[in-house]
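Reminder to self: keep the SMILES exactly as supplied, no canonicalising. Ligand is fe (ii) ion.
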Amino acid sequence: MTGFGPRRLAHVNLFVSDLERSTAFYTEVCGLDVVFEEPGISAVFLSNGTSHHDLALMEVTPGERVGRDGHVQVSRGRGRRAGLNHLGWEMASEAALVEAIHDVRGQGVKLHRTVDHQISRSAYVFDPDEVYLEFYCDAAEDWRVTYANNTGQLITGSWDPDAAPADASARYAESPTITVVEDAALRPVRTARASLIVSDLDAAVAFYTGVGGLSVLRRGEAGAVLGGSLGLPDLTLLVGTNPGLDHFGLELRDAVELAEGLARVRAAGVPVLHEESSPYKQSLVLVDPDGIRVEFLVPGEGALVTPGPESPFAI
Ligand SMILES: [Fe+2]
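Structure tokens returned for the bound complex:
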């Protein structure tokens, strides 16, 4: 295997300018449930049960954010503005993660840090446009118990991947119990996708295949779609002049959920930026309090199309 080769994109971690305001938006409108809070680093974790978090929010900071035992989670200079902190990719097991760490180090790739989050263990790396990526394996028997045992505390410290033999068991949830936020406008099931603007498509595709270990599902002149080992379209790359996150996508159960959600969004007076309807998918796009675009989508039966900057929500 070359590179990390994750199963899928599993979470998005955002820097937000006002943690309370964004938490209200992502719970009350977007329907994600707060499952853990880490006040020491001004962070909130949200999930509907698919994983220990499908979304994390961390308030912007002019300085460092330091976790357990002095572990620097956000180094000085990062996290000063709202936007993407990182994309979180789910590995099959700790053994797969440790093997991949050795592979990418062998390729000469410098990892930014390796971390024990207790719920997971992680390696972090920057892509060619300095987009920050996390490749993690679940580490807890039950993340709810780990969270309960750490209420209000810092949860993250350093991790030496070679300190002990790696655990080969798969700890991700095969068929999670999905929860619903009562009274929320939308009812997402999981984080499904992210779209990045990249400065150099060839360089980005080379990185995401060689280091990321993703497969190319579609490739055009100005864009590409890549996926993890589950074969889903996790990541869209679009050529542009302002690299970074374009938008991310949360999946809904079905078209009825989408239609009912759209009605509740409109009734709540929340502006809808865009609606997409094609054989490939149906979706609506909202804008969060910091201007980050969030898509709520239901996949259709139609074939995957080739993306381009003129239609960022086509995938
Ligand atoms: Fe993360």
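Points to follow up:
The CA atoms of residues 91 and 137 lie 5 Å apart.
Residues 11, 13, 56, 86, 88, 134 surround fe (ii) ion (CB under 6 Å).
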